[in-house]
Amino acid sequence: ENPSGMGTVGNPKCGDIMRIYLDIDENQVIRDVKFKTFGCGAAVATSSMATELVKGKTVREAMTVTNKAVMEALDGLPPVKVHCSLLAEEAIHAALWDYAQKNGITIEGLEKPKDNIEEEEEEEEIPAASAFTQPVSRPSARVQTEEKPRYQELEEDDREGIPSFFSRR
Ligand code: FES
After folding, report:
1. At 162, is the secondary structure helix, strand, or coil?
2. What is the C-alpha radius of gyration for the chain, rounded to an integer number of angstroms?
3. How far is the CA of 120 from the centre of ligand 1 (A)?
4. How many CA atoms lie within 13 A of 151 on its CB side?
5. Is 43 in the pocket of ligand 1 (CB under 6 A)?
């Protein structure tokens, strides 16, 4: 609730999503970390380990928690699961970035996360909105104008049908 920093990242290939919440005190020490992971077992394991590793660290120290550090702490990961640990690192960085943005500070070595899910969600809405632009709306508008009278006819039939049914009784 009301995190100091929140970061959500996803891997478009496997579709897994990871969100990290940081609770950071006035001395820039990470007091608490929470995570939500919608993904594979390794994603859950790496995000859990990453939260353990950054807890109690300052935001600058947290930058040393790389995916390699996470993998070492887990005694290694099979090669196909390395990207899962990368997701954990990216999620921490995204949350740190959010914290830095909110507080107007810079954290050395921290770069703007390349795929923040919030931004992607907004992008997802664009195709729907673009249906209103001229080239896309023309075919769908035609469908609508064809369909609308048909619905109206049906409604009118129904409206006529009901009273006549009752009047016959
Ligand atoms: Fe995607 Fe693990 S398979 S994060």
Report:
1. helix
2. 26
3. 18
4. 6
5. yes
Contacts of 42 (CB under 8 A, 6+ apart): 77, 81, 84, 85
Atom of ligand 1 nearest to the CA of 13: 1
Q: Are 97 and 104 in contact (CB under 8 A)?
A: no
Q: How far is the CA of 45 from the centre of ligand 1 (A)?
A: 11
- Helix runs in the chain, H state only: 41-54, 59-62, 67-73, 82-103, 117-130, 134-168
Q: What strands, in cross-sheet order, belong to the sheet with 30-38? A: 5-10, 17-24, 30-38
pLDDT in tens, the chain (169 residues): 789 999 999 999 999 999 999 999 999 999 999 999 999 999 999 999 999 999 999 999 999 999 999 999 999 999 999 999 999 999 999 999 999 999 999 999 999 887 666 544 444 444 544 444 444 444 444 444 444 444 444 444 444 444 544 445 5
Q: How far is the CA of 153 from the centre of ligand 1 (A)?
A: 52
Torsion, Cα 35 37 43 45, to 10 degrees, reads 50
Ligand 1 atom nearest the C-alpha of 40 is: 2
pTM: 0.69
